[in-house]
Amino acid sequence: MNILCRTPKEVILPNNTLSSIREMTTVRKLVTNFHTFSISLFLYQRANERKQN
Question: CA-CA distance, 50 to 11, in Å (whole number)?
Fold first, then answer.
């Protein structure tokens, strides 16, 4: 009972939501970075193909 009183759910929940939001933002950044990288790589390959032809 003492442990429950020391750490109420109101205190635990905000920390979890903050950490999950941080994780989501990092995942979003990674996805966008990968997306831009793949697009630039595709364009680079197309440019090389044009140079060879």
Answer: 60
16: which 2 tokens?
């979890």
Sole residue written with tokens 């205190």: 11
> What tens-digit pLDDT sequence spans the chain (53 residues)?
455 555 555 555 566 777 887 888 888 888 898 989 999 999 999 999 998 87
Q: Give, in order, the Cα–Cα distances in Å from 47 to each of 17, 37, 39, 40, 51.
A: 45, 15, 12, 10, 6
Q: Tokens 């950044």 label which residue?
A: 29
